[in-house]
Give the backbone structure.
Amino acid sequence: MSTSNRQIESLLHQPYAAGFVTDIEQETFPPGLDENVIKQISRMKNEPDFMLEWRLAAFRHWLKIREPHWSIAHYEPIDYQAISYYSSPKSRKSGPTSLEEIDPKLLETYEKLGIPLHERAALAGVAVDAVFDSVSVATTFRETLARAGVIFCPISEAIQNYPDLVRTHLGTVVPPTDNFFASLNSAVFTDGSFVYIPKGVRCPLELSTYFRINAAKTGQFERTLIIADEGASVSYLEGCTAPMRDENQLHAAVVELIALEDAEIRYATVQNWYPGDESGVGGIYNFVTKRGECRGAHSHISWVQVETGSSITWKYPSCILRGDESVGEFYSVAVARNFQQADTGTKMIHLGRGTKSTILSKGISAGHGKNAYRGLVHLGRNARDARNYTQCDSLILGPDAEADTFPMIEVENGSARAEHEATTSKISDDQIFYCRQRGLSEEDAVGLIVNGFCREVFLKLPMEFAVEAQKLLSVSLEGAVG
Amino acid sequence: MNLLELRNLHVAIEGKMVLRGINLDVPPGEVHAVMGPNGSGKSTLVQTLAGAEPYQVTDGQALFLGKDLLSRAPEERARQGLFLAFQYPVEISGLSNAYFLRASVNALNRARGEPELDAVDFLGVLRSELLAMEMKPELLERFVNHGFSGGEKKRNEILQMKLLKPRLALLDETDSGLDIDALKVVARGINAMRDRERGFLVVTHYQRLLDYVVPDRVHVLVNGRIVQSGDADLARLLEKRGYDWLLEPQRA
């Protein structure tokens, strides 16, 4: 192995820091899935009838369809009857009304992960919703947000407290019949975040949800719904971690974003689910459907994702650009090292006139990692003067890593324009030597090159997350402004 | 003390002996030119001194500022003030040139116990050097050496030398592929760096560069050995007569 490969190996073999298990008494359903389990979940959550009907319809549809296998990922068949569909910390009965009522062990867990839930200690200007296995355990800054008219709460609470708002919007962007994993999620989702930003309101805080899988042999199925009413704007951050376990765990989430006229939603994810060990044992299957709809004219949805974890990632945060002159963006860094497999990308569906979209995808493959960009740009019949710009870059570290791109472009009208650029590069021994001759260590050199490669995407992240993202890439980036 | 002392230096690459006993001293303040036909080992010499991995020192020693050079990692040599202007500067896509330049300046500043420069301070330093090298500012925004012309790459090497202020600069065929205007700019850059402390080892195939950067000593490298040393006149003689008359009998 050459020097640079050795270096890259050691750099990328950083231990998984979030891999601890919280020892807490949990109430967990026995494994298995049937209509009774769904009824039980619905009952536990005190849901209105419409919700149960919605879930059961999704379940009945799910039974008729098959798991998709068109991605680059290979894995043993998933036994859906071997998974538990509900797990929650036991101490919680009807939900804590204040942080003092939360089990101190849970608070400790989030402290360890660097997510302070005490409002006094919380990062200034970031409100946090923490989801632990199947339930939301804390939402901070709720009063501050309420004064601005912003609703930010666990979706289980929203279903009870704002049933009309939920009923009107849930499943309108990702219908329960959308795909296999979305149907499963619709049937069994347990918690997640709900956000409503009223007309003309600029959300006074960054909103953040932190997802944690703790229990063994459980699936995590969160559902997030964000609605930005006319002229509203919000920036939302999502983080995820899980303990190190030998078995694979399924995470099948659904995120729906709805932006009405002149509204803006920025959704950023730093995904660091447990990726499995160096030989590919264990890790999270991250099979997630994320989609936003720019429903109103001049609306704007932007996805930023840094995907460093999970043993398999299957995820395509997309935008439906229905409103005229609406804008969709997708900025992504995806890392596949050891035996990780990442199949990720986006769909930009241009329906309205003068709609614009930008796709910037950076894939890093190392070790035996496999990384694929998969994208669809659809410029519809009525999308006059629509524009798309796509750039897909792959960086390959080491001889056994793989990178693929599967771009698809459909243009249905002559005034629309799509541009696509793609590059593939490697870090060579010559590059490392050149950097070392300029006084940089091997580690600095690899770090500079990798961070340079990701920089355009990191610049799109909110500051706190940019820092976390760089740390996750296990490289230093001294003074980010060049 | 000499900046560089080479004693009986033997270097092989992939088992093949390329340098067969080099003896050379470079005192502070002097420019030494190493000339010779293709394949004589000129690039091997400077690459070895910079610490390139494929070259194996099989015998002899090299002292830099009186201390053993060859046991040190390439970055340590750089931090102690050894600079190599590459014959083929390496492209690094994804990494902006400005960012790379500042990272290397700060790596050396750290090693010297000097304060690191922030982006604003650095840009100030950079601007004037860029102007002196007649380089387009957009070359800072591009990826390292990416989409640079041959001449721009060489100017970028000299720019780095000026920013890093080495004690000893090794220039590997910096003149090759340059038109006359670029050659003058590069030569001016080198001459601006000449002082009583700093030394240069200039590897070149042609006399051309030495019209502008007048060397104190000229060494002719043939078949891995220095076969002739002299002053600047030797370079002019080589330009007229070529290398054939110096070739060793077994290779002629």
The CA atoms of residues 52 and 74 of chain B lie 7 Å apart.
